[in-house]
Amino acid sequence: MKSNMENLKYNLSEALELPKDVVLDLPKITIIGNIQLNISNHKGIIEYTQETLRINSNVGIVKISGNNMELKTILSEEIIVVGLIEKVEIIC
Amino acid sequence: MQVIKTWNYLRGYVIIKVEGLTLERFLNLAATNDIYLWDIKRVNYTVLEMKASIEGFKALKEVIKKVGCRVEIIEKKGLPFILYKLRARKMLGFGILIFLGLIIFLSSFIWNIEVTGNEKIKTQDIIKVLEKENIKSGIIKYNIDKDYTKHFLLDQFDNFSFVSVDIKGTKLIIEVKEQDLPPEKIDIATPCNIVANKKGVIVKVIARNGNAVVRKGDIVDKGDVLISGVISDENSGEYIFVHSDGEVLAKTVYSYRLDEPIIKSIKEETGRSMEMRELKFGEKGLRFSKGEIPFKDYIEEVREVKLFKKNTNLPIKLLVYEYNEVEIKETKQNIDFLKKSTHIKAVKELNKELPEKAQIESKDVKYYVEDGILSTVVVIEAIEDIGEKQIINTN
After folding, report:
1. What is the pLDDT of residue B312?
2. Backbone angles phi, psi at B328, to 5 degrees
3. Distance, in angstroms, between A38 CA and closest chain B CA?
4. From A13, B71, B271, B362, which residue has the greatest number of CB atoms within 10 Å?
């Protein structure tokens, strides 16, 4: 049932060209070079050190590895990470 | 980003150290409670360093209780803290108040008066007249009634056609426009001559009063006496001075020469252009050039970019020089057409010189071509009254 609903939403957003991050409630990850990463629509931080950052989201855990990472801002909607970003993984 | 930083500085913020084991939970709770935290840095396994606004820090207390960690303020930054520190130094605040008061106080005076646009009347005279009305440097500027001053000046000086009074900062700017006074009417009782006001050949002399000294056909120069107000009594040999009156019609010649090259070079823009900027501090300028101008022929255009709002009279200007490349093309003009256009131009120029009452007798147009230049000479003969009254100095 739920998968049907998801399918419908997906098709709807395809048909009407609506942004999927809004319709499907998915995280939107933007990386600027290797120095900044914005992630909106997150579901909270699981782990944060200067080398690894794990953020919960609807598609699973987003794991970001890097060096000297700082959290520039944390809002309920968006997290901005600055530092040297080396790897972004999505662990389902 | 700088804007946000400045804003945070003005509002004040604290750098805090949070010590605990479940720091991620602390961050998540702060985010869900809408507490704005920024520049979060992991110092080591149990310590986080971050910045929080003053209100944010107060709101954090609840979160701290829930998570059970220790918070320590490392540094307080921003304007509110500085002001708090200064609260103890009352004399400093007093000094700032005196300073502001002094500036407001001093800037409410007129410190100098600037007069512009006057040509015949000396600036000193205008300032003297204003002083009589108690408008001088050192008075409070709010007391000046601009409208009254304007009308007062227009009353005092007959030949002012326009006066504007403006106060800019501590400067009173008086802008005037002068007009030419009409020639003074000479009273009938005063003896006078009628003299020529320009060169001409006399056509007709009608002397209503006085002694006509010129006749038809005479050539007169400017300043020559036409009708004399001095009549000598033949019997006694004495002179009688009268107020002479009459009309002296004379033929006058106006000519105008206009040179126009037949081959004309026309500058045509090719569309390529380059810009240079210059920052001017008063007289000194700093030009940001991108190397030499790569065009052989070009037109320079200078534009000023307003850096500030209107009316701010700061000595900093940004000038933009635009160089448009042009191609010089030489074209030969149609002589007949050129003759017509120069003729019209010359007549227009002559019309400006001709007095209103003059009657045009004849017009003569001549063209000469020499060295590729077309010279157009228009000569107009007119008949007009050249008499002008001039008081006789009886002494």
Report:
1. 58
2. -90, 120
3. 14
4. B71
